[in-house]
Amino acid sequence: xxxxxxxxxxxxxxxxxxxxxxxxxxxxxxxxxxxxxxxxxxxxxxxxxxxxxxxxxxxxxxxxxxxxxxxxxxxxxxxxxxxxxxxxxxxxxxxxxxxxxxxxxxxxxxxxxxxxxxxxxxxxxxxxxxxxxxxxxxxxxxxxxxxxxxxxxxxxxxxxxxxxxxxxxxxxxx
Length: 174
Prior knowledge:
The chain is mainly alpha-helical.
């Protein structure tokens, strides 16, 4: 019996379903668990959409985390009135998911996980800094968004870690 070792050769129904589930989780956690900030040029938003992103990066890998995070948060932008942000969100958050998943491919211990969250934080700060600079035409205004981005990613990372590890244990038993 010959097995296909090329991961791009076929995508199972399970892969489609689990990725769609995580897109929905990212969307719901972003849309319904958030706080609008009265600072920054656009107000800003702290949400928990990073929680399912980090859970996906830990348990499902970089590809599914990138798709779930990027699409889930970009859909939120479109539905939530932040439409001009959607293309930036798609790219920035997909990169966050991809590189977090990449860091966590071999090991999801606390040190490695913390490194993945730090990489995601750097990508978020850098990506959204340039997005805000492009959208508002001011290179100083995006600085006011950095504290909210830090709180958002770090809190998401802290909340997601025990959930991700618990899910990893459950998935090993299945």
